[in-house]
Design brief:
heterodimer; A: 387 residues; alpha/beta; Aspartate Aminotransferase, domain 1; Aspartate Aminotransferase, domain 2; seven-stranded mixed beta sheet; four-stranded antiparallel beta sheet; 13 strands; B: 283 residues; alpha+beta; Sufe protein. Chain: A; Arc Repressor Mutant, subunit A; GMP Synthetase, Chain A, domain 3; 3 domains; three-stranded antiparallel beta sheet; three-stranded mixed beta sheet; 50% helix
Chain lengths: 387, 283
Amino acid sequence: MNPQVIYVDNNATTAIDPEVFEAMKPFLTEFYGNPSSIHHFGGNVAAYIKKGREQLAEFLRAEPEEIIFTSCGTESDNSAVLSTLNTYPTRKKVVTSKVEHPAILNLGKYLREKGYIVSEIPVDKFGKIDMTALEEMVDADTAVVSIMWANNETGNIYPVEKIAQITKSKGALFHTDAVQAVGKIPINLKNSAIDMLSLSGHKLHAPKGVGALFVRKGVGFKPFMIGGHQESGRRAGTENVAGIVALGKASELAGKYMNYENKEVKELRDYLESRILKRIPKTVINGDVANRVPNTTNIAFEFIEGESILLLLDEAGIAASSGSACTTGSLEPSHVLRAMDVPYTSAHGSIRFSLSRYNTKAEMDRIIETLVPAIKKLREISPYWRP
Amino acid sequence: MWNYTEKVMDHFLNPRNVGEVDNPDGEATVGNIRCGDALKLGFKLDNNGKIAEIKFKTFGCGSAIASSSVLTEMVKGKTLEEAEKITNKDIVKALGGLPEEKIHCSVMGMEALQSAIANYRGTEYKHEDEDEHHGRIVCHCFGVTDAKIRKIAKENEIKTVEGITNYCKAGGDCGRCKNDILEILQGVWKLESQKEKQSETPVLTFTQKVIKIQAVIDSDIRPMLEQDGGSIEFIDLRGDTVVVRLKGRCSMCPSSGITLKNIVEEKLREYVSADLKIKEIRG
């Protein structure tokens, strides 16, 4: 943890939990063997991969054989969708939503160029998926439906179980990008209709460079990475042993902290949010307020621009993120806010605060005390602001 | 995170001359809230016709605020004739540089100043707008015309689509017009390079042409085709018609017509003579 910074950008990445770091460290120093080796020095390491797999499976209420370790959430997303298209070569359609992560949206663009039909379900002004449109779009030509479990920008939770059942009734497979849901809300894949699920280590206090894909038993899978026999031939490449051990430990801890996340972290988020709304006029919450992951709030400050807000927060040692895209190289508000038709007066000035179990109430107070004068200052500079 | 210079951060954190001038002599607003930045600029002149007071209000990112602020400092005490000579490049320089993607912020400053001066003179700001209204809208997201893109490209020697986006935002939203922008740029720079070539290159004799064609095919074109498993053979030059035979994968490729037109003919015209035509013989 870095005491110099108030870190409220946990949907971007998280701090590695010290227990996780301790668990993974020996595999970066002492036990560097290759788990596929014949000698004991390498071979012994395989037992720790097995343990990591069991920890993650238990956390998700899945079977260890249903877990494939990958390098990141994007790889998991890509593997899931491409595997389905390769498994059902006669089906040429992918259904997804307008608010997905680029790992799915840009894959969709790529697939369109390859001749596939990719349908994006629209959302309403709260970011809710149009379920009627979904039922209509999923047809006999659909290979896979991929809808995120929770949105990275607004924190909106999507009814994936219901969507999975609709998908199943049409004979297609259902994949969910659960990168922003895992570790934040309880997940139980045991009696679920979900066929595939992607997750990423660094969003739940494990390091970057490790992810996983859940593939339900009986669901056909064709590998994305071609090469060696690792992961039962489903994902080639020498295992990221330290990363896998870390992800196993992190998921065990996430299970332990699940109640804390949904009570204490949620209370902190609600505290921050309500104070901001109370103290700063012309602020609006973006998203489906009653239906969000407990750590995220996305707040629009009208008549000012997000990057300048972030710069002032940054000056005060506060790390948050912008829904507006001046920071990301594109010049427009994020595709998520645009899909929700958030008015331009506020879309450009939307800021996301995403908390973790490491945040404190004192930090929330510091954010509020910084934000109030910062917003006032920027509005005084803005030609659109009329107090 | 942007790497802003200290100067940018200073002007962003401590903006100079914020506000609105009472009864301004000249005033203008450029940009709008949809586009993500806007600047309102107003000034008052003293008895000697120099800018005595200038104030701004800006909606936008850190560099938009800094560009506006530094601009007000640059023009204070100047006559309008002096002030209107200030370009966006001067603003960038005064800030100690801006990230490529933020150049449009300095352009907004320049446009606001020129519009405010035009407002004082009772004329319309014509620097860019004149062309703008005559052109065809290429970027619908930001309302940028082909004429404006051509002008920007020429004046600032911009040769890439990203360069255009950084300067005036065109192509920076949905991106659907990127191909159009590329075509416009190719048009601009092809004309320019042809002009240069024509003035530079002496007229070649027939033999000189043959030798040069062979050389260009050997050193430039064939290696390119070989990367895709194809090849090319120079057969003959008949008048201005270059006769070639495609080999390997190129000979079976359904898009070989495009290869000939876009790669082979283009290269030969560029390096040898603009009048050359390509003819393929098969078998």
